[in-house]
Structures are given as structure tokens and as C-alpha cells.
What does this fold into?
Amino acid sequence: VQIARDIQVAAYTGARLHIPTITTAASVQLIKEAKKKYSNISCSVSTNHLLLDTKNLSDFNTHFKIQPPLRDEKQKNALINGLKSGVIDTVTSDHIPLNVEHKAVEFDQASYGSTGLESSYGILQSLLDTESAIKALTSGYLIFGLQRPQIKVDELANLSLFIPDVKYTFEKKDILSISKNSAIIGNKLKGKAHGIINNKKIVWNG
It folds into this structure.
């Protein structure tokens, strides 16, 4: 209902509208239809919602208490199809690190949130080809009018270093954040980010 309202307001005013972290098939359909009429609408999805669904909530593990909440498998598949078809423009890690005391409580008392920086690329590379995964991660430059880093002579290097084909089980040791509240621990992923070249420094996590 909120998305339908916001689309109508954007259509009436001509304003740009970005809808973050959609989670339902109905949202995908609303945005798909709106994009046929208006060019000023974009949206994103959390990588956590592309991999997880309500089945993960069966044992009330607080790591899976995220906001927006996880949906059923049908909704998850609609999000994946929406991303593959281009209805969903970009993705977010929805990285929300929390101290352990915010999660080591009963489910209804736990805080919402999961880390996502270290697992986002592996989730995308498990679902998409490499070119599509990179596009999903970097299309925000265009959406938000940001200068895209250039790879050319005399430009300061700003690069991400990754291996697309490596397969592994995501574990706590893969989380560089101080907070370890990841909903992705234990999942099999493909593709791993290993480092960056930025601000004249090379950071490598082999």
C-alpha cells in the first residue's frame, strides 16, 4: 500500500522515487507496471532476502530477525526473478552490525538486523552470472547520480578484488566486522571478495 501511494505521488509530482529493500511479489509487480509509464522510479532489494525465507525462522534463531521481515519462498523467488529481469535495479547489503547482547535474548526481545557486507557478493554470485552480479552491486552510481570510478591512466585506483568461481560455506571466520550477527552463517556460497585497492593502499584478506 505504501509503495502504491509513493508511486502515485511520484507520478503526480514528477519527482524521482527510489524504493529500498522491497520484499514481496506484489511490490515487484507494482514497480514493474509503474516503470512502463515512468522513468523516474527505481528500487533495491537486500541480498539477505534473495537467499533466506520464512523456513529459516523455524527454530527462532535471532540472527534471522531482520527488517523488513523474511517472506516465504514464493516471495523470495519473485525477488530473484525481479532482479534478473531488471525490475529491481540494485541491491543493498543491509549491513546492520549489533552487539551480542542484542541477539542473545528471546526472539521477541531481540533487535532487528544482520551483517551483510562480507556475504553480499557471494549471495549474488551464487544466483547470477558475474556480469549481472557486478551490475547489481554498482548500478547505484547511476541511480543516485554518483561519479563512477574510472580505470584509466592518471586516475587514482579504486578497485575491488574478488574470485567469482570459488565455492565455500560462509562461516564466522569470513566476517571481518567486530559484530558476528550474520544470518548467512552456514550457507553455501559461490564467489568471494578478497580485498580492495583504494586511497593508494592495498587491503587483502586471503
Notes: Residues 157 and 200 are 7 Å apart (CA to CA).
